[in-house]
Specification:
The protein is α/β, with parallel strands linked by helices. The chain has 13 helices and 14 strands. It has an 8-stranded mixed β-sheet, with helices on both faces. α1 packs antiparallel against α2 and α11 packs parallel to α12. About 0% of the residues have low confidence.
């Protein structure tokens, strides 16, 4: 039976470690390319010898087309040795390397021997185990950036964005809402904002000529009535024939440009946030309506753009799986010291005294707690209790409101956005946005 992607690395370990002459290898790095195929770079210990041709043959038999020869070793050609040096400069320790030996026993290779180098085209901001790099620290003189993210669409995420913007505006705060979902835009129509240009225009212009102009980008949220002047919206862009041309040129991959490890989109979005932070009147809050799913822009907006992450979901099997994946990603990028996260459970039954409401909210709270314990709280010696309502995992519940299902703009539903559940979400976000400086 042919190997699958999930089996390749373990089979490579088993093949290498089962050879007697592999004991002399001091350092081994697996390079997995964007298609999932693997290469192997080796450094031998002093005085050690290894039959690289025989190992190449063994790996070709065991892995088939998944393996790309030759093995890059000490006796490779000068060009291959230079490639091997570059690999060793970029690799990271393979801390959880293990395999089943020929006897079927789970085995770990010697510590420090194995390393990995993953070459990915996308999803870097979901999987990279590095500290989040925010555009600025939370200070009183700079706006707080808040991302609203949901693993699944149709859970009321954009409605939460609109409600939060409306409530903050009623408190005399200046707010900018940015639609990051350029492939399925909706914020502009919901908030009644019409502009000449949109986010997609800014991204494409910046990628081409480093343009950072805000001209024509922002429009008032007319659907919010009296508060429209305090809420500005950057929509995705004008949906015409040219929209597809611009979308086709948008580079969502994590390609490096020169000495900067940020993608073109990362660089453009950072410049957009800086331009918004320095405009007059300066916004107090920038709310990012991220797109659903494991999309690159969603990972970027959660991990490298926002001070506060709002994770929106509902009681469903897919929702729970998405919540765990998101918690896993947060655990890779945030420490407990810089974690500012609000979990929001939407579409709960309307009656909080009903048994169904209690069952569903208790299950969501447990699933959220389990995900945070495993992936976010893992290094904390003092775990919070599951019912600690100020901890990051504890969900704020928004009950289902039928009147907020079928409408095109919020003009006729404005009062529904000020209900107690929405107020609780806004209060939670505002508390998390407290600046770090005194």
């Amino acid at each position: 039976m042919a190997l699958t992607f999930d089996e390749v690395l373990e089979e490579l370990l088993r093949t290498c470690e089962s050879r007697a002459d592999f004991a002399g290898v001091a350092r081994a790095t697996v390079v997995r390319d964007v298609r999932g195929r693997v290469r192997l770079a080796l450094e031998l210990g002093q005085g050690a010898r290894l039959d690289a041709d025989a190992l190449t043959s063994d790996l070709s038999r065991a892995l088939g087309s998944w393996f790309v020869p030759p093995v890059l070793g000490d006796r490779s050609t000068p060009d291959f040795r230079r490639v091997r040096s570059l690999v060793f400069e970029q690799h990271t320790p393979w801390a959880d390397a293990s395999y089943r030996n020929l006897a079927g026993e789970r085995t770990r290779p010697p510590d420090g021997r194995w390393h990995r180098l993953e070459r990915r085209l996308s999803k870097l901001d979901w999987v990279a185990p590095r500290k989040a790099q925010l555009p600025w620290k939370l200070r009183r003189t700079m706006p707080a950036v808040v991302t609203f993210y949901s693993f699944k669409g149709g859970v009321g995420r954009t409605t939460l964005v609109a409600s939060t913007a409306l409530q903050l505006a009623r408190e005399a705060k200046n707010v900018v809402v940015v639609d990051l979902d350029v492939e399925a835009p909706g914020v502009s129509s919901l908030l009644g904002a019409v502009s000449e240009r949109g986010l997609l225009d800014f991204l494409v212009d910046h990628a081409a000529v480093n343009a950072t102009s805000l001209d024509g980008l922002l429009a008032p949220a007319t659907a919010l009535g009296d508060e429209a002047s305090r809420v500005s919206v950057i929509g995705a862009g004008r949906l015409d024939a040219d929209y597809f041309e611009k979308l086709a040129r948008l580079d969502f991959i994590g390609a490096q440009l020169g000495g900067d490890d940020a993608s073109p989109v990362t660089q453009a979005l950072r410049q957009l946030l800086l331009a918004l932070a320095n405009r007059a009147p300066r916004p107090d809050y920038i709310l990012l309506d991220s797109r659903a799913g494991l999309h690159d822009v969603a990972g970027l907006s959660l991990h490298d753009l926002a001070h506060v992450d709002v994770l929106v979901g509902r009681d469903s099997d897919q929702g729970y799986r998405g919540l765990e994946l998101t918690a896993m990603a947060l655990g890779r990028r945030r420490t407990l010291d810089d974690l500012r996260c609000a979990v929001v459970q939407t579409m709960a039954p309307d009656d909080p005294t009903a048994e169904e409401y209690k069952r569903i909210t208790a299950e969501y709270r447990k699933r959220s707690y389990d995900a945070f314990v495993e992936h976010v709280y893992a290094d904390d010696d003092d775990l919070p209790e599951i019912d600690d309502d100020v901890s990051a995992h504890y969900p704020t519940v928004v009950r289902f409101q039928p009147r907020l299902v079928s409408f095109t703009t919020l003009t006729v539903r404005r009062e529904e956005l000020l209900g107690a559940d929405f107020v609780a979400v806004k209060d939670r976000i505002a508390a998390l946005c407290q600046p770090e400086d005194p």
